[in-house]
């Protein structure tokens, strides 16, 4: 492939990546998922720019800058795409910081090493003296990414993380608590990335320059189409999710097999659910039975729900005192479970609503205590009057 053809292919690829970066970011600038995706698209665009500069350099300084930019962004893009996947699709049961922090470390460490090499002239990762100057040709990354730690970071950040991004996609897709839409999105992405990988490998075998251009182009196109099709990063979907989380009642959604699909923050707070998450209805009810002051009623409720799932069921749950230092720390809740039907025919799952009656019940208890105290006072006064009358009649 000629230099002119490579340049003509690289420019629209960079343009597409910039368009995706800007459009996704502007959809919802405050959402971390949109921010991370925009960062990944920026890295792809800068990587393409580095290749373009390297191919068209006419001075040593420009060629070295192109090689430097290509190396930095190539090493950052692998962990970045995994970060996008975890932040966008990881279910609540997975502790995202446990994975996000190592990925952020893999993003920053190569940059620090390359900056150190650039400033001190060492070769921890990159050896810029290996960059052919002003040849107007493509220089493979491995030629100048030849420092002490280069084999490790090249294998991990570029080969394994870029090539293995389908692994978390397929794992998240078939987790029991993944909802239908998310599962379909993940399967489409997984299939698209597999096809992109096969095409990129075959293209690189034919022409390394073309492979380096086609790979990011396919990734950008596939992610853009799939995320747009399923509105993954849409502000409307994000707003709906936020509205559910901020609702003043708890909400838990189960699929047909009773795996938990969604739990809003209010339900987690009211039911005092563990942060590690609970996978299904049976384990949730077992947990609530241990926490309940009325465990027999809760067990009976769970049994009736499983025996007759197409009927609406309701129970009052009284949670034990959580803080011994706070009086009246009991929590009174109404738990209601009812089936969900699609188009009033197909049974697709269940919805559990949790309502907080603690204030109402505590008020009723206080009123009952006050009423009892008044009754006792009335009885006391009546007896006192009786004693007084008896004493008075005796004197007479």
Outline the structure in words:
- The chain is of the alpha+beta class and 396 residues long.
- It folds into 2 domains: 3-239, Rhopdopsin 7-helix transmembrane proteins; 248-356, PAS domain (Beta-Lactamase).
- The chain has 14 helices and 5 strands.
- The chain has helices at 3-27, 32-56, 60-89, 96-120, 141-144, 150-163, 166-173, 180-206, 208-229, 235-245, 265-271, 281-291, 295-307, 358-395; strands spanning 250-255, 260-263, 313-319, 331-342, 346-356.
- The chain has a 5-stranded antiparallel beta sheet, sandwiched between helices.
- A hairpin with a 3-residue loop joins strand 4 (331-342) and strand 5 (346-356).
- Helix 1 packs antiparallel against helix 2 (32-56), helix 2 runs antiparallel to helix 3 and helix 7 runs antiparallel to helix 8 (180-206).
- The longest helix has 38 residues, at 358-395.
- The mean pLDDT is 80.
